[in-house]
Amino acid sequence: MDHFDLGTYRRPISTFSAETQRWFDIGLNWCYGFNHEEGIKCFEKALETDPSCAFVHWGIAYAAGPFYNLTWKEHGKDEANRAARRCFDHVQLARSKAAGASLVERRLIEALSARFQQPHSVSAAEFENWDDAYAAAMRQVYRDFPDDHDVMALTVEALMMRTVRRLWNLKTGEPAPNSDVLEALEICERSIRLSDEAGATPHPAILHLHIHLLEMSTQPERGMRSAERLGTMCPDAGHMNHMPGHIHVLCGEYEKAKLASKKAVRANDLYLAYAGEPTYYLLGCCHDLHLMMFTCMLLAQYRPALWAADKVRSLVTRDVVSIPERPKLTQTVEGYHAMRSHVQVRFGRWREIIDEPMNGEPELYVLSTAMQHYAKGVAHATLREFAAAERERHLFNRHVETIPPERRFLSNPTRASLAVGAALLEGELAYHQGRHDEAYKHLRRAVELDDNLSYTEPWAWMHPPRHALAALLLDHGHAAEAEQVYRDDLGLSGAVQRCAQHPDNVWALHGLVECLKRRGETNELAGLQAKLKVAIAKADMAITSSCLCRTSFEAGDCCCH
């Protein structure tokens, strides 16, 4: 529990015990890295050597409550009841022992009492009221203690929790309704500025939250410096190692995102070997592997992408997927289990997809079953095995109808994510059957549906539909529209939301270069070819098209390394 290197950040608290202080610091750093369950264990150890310490009870209450990756509404009913009881009880214990606490500790304890107003679960609307009340209380603590970096971090988090992953309007780039994102950004960046002016290391939680504040904005590159600094601060905190990858992948720095993922996986392996039984942090471990899959898919690196997908499956065992009363954990990790199908389709492993046995428990492996039918349908269509493709389409649609509308994967209803797959499957089947105009309508619809998914990183549908649309447009001579689609995907047109852009990805670069060659363009071609050469050198396969569902290409269009 105490042999992990979580960095050097410390917060002195009101205690006579050096051991209590040590365990408190470890627990707080785990929480700042979103491993709240481990944080609770450390705070409980801290109480053993100073049971009178009020602020350790604050720590347990804070850690047992909601955070950016587990909101109140994402708790199961019993899970929410247990959390509310634990948080309420420890806030009351903290208040009862507050005479020995410092002024700022007493204020933080009182602020947290606004977050946990009853010892039981309440309605979703009432939980939102608690979040609002806590944010208002933390604003006041920040006004009174404006130079305390923990207060800044806690205030930023409280503001973000009011509109989790609804910080920005993805279409306009403006703050989303009811979002406090500009206020939170100002506090974050003031904290960083004060640290820089003092020649001090920035607060790790501030850097962490700064990335979250900017990842769905129109300027993710604004978080690049925070990403670079956070990546070396907390060596054994997997989530903190991973977080820079959010910015790197959005900015086309795919190798850096891959490195962040590898560092996170190393740290997570250390933690999982120690932890034994699965905890909620397993979701974070799978998320880090999910980003590695996504990054390697954009790099055209099949082997590490498949390795990450297989490692997820080794972690997401049946006993994890079937844990009762923890819906966010079980539904999300089951979704990560399904992502292997995206890897297989991205890299055109058609026969492997077809030969893979179907999962035998579709009611448990909900998204995985749907994705298998989708992948098998695309594979059969591409191989012109149309009867089998139509059978898989039927099985896909029938299975999707059984998925409860309220079931979610990350920020989206599962059905909303799968609607992208349904349109792609219809388009692939129509195209390979020779119904090209109909196919393009379905594929354009897939792009539209994908663009209108709610924000999550990586994106909920991992294989950009624009890559399939443009490849099949180009395959049938529609080079002008294909060129526009590639420009949109690369972020060169400015016509699509920032989070739908994949700067300098090898697939779209290959397609755009092919388009420019076809129309004899020379001014722009040399620069793009230079970028493509760099991207090709990082791939572990030959690139023939932006999507391997396109089966015809000219020999000169193949890019090898």
Automatic annotation (TrEMBL):
It comes from the Bacteria. InterPro entries: TPR-like_helical_dom_sf (IPR011990), TPR_rpt (IPR019734). TPR repeats lie at residues 20-53, 420-453. SMART domains: TPR. Keywords: TPR repeat. PANTHER family: TPR DOMAIN-CONTAINING PROTEIN, WW DOMAIN-CONTAINING PROTEIN. This is Tetratricopeptide repeat protein. It comes from Rhizobium loti. The lineage of its organism: Bacteria, Pseudomonadati, Pseudomonadota, Alphaproteobacteria, Hyphomicrobiales.
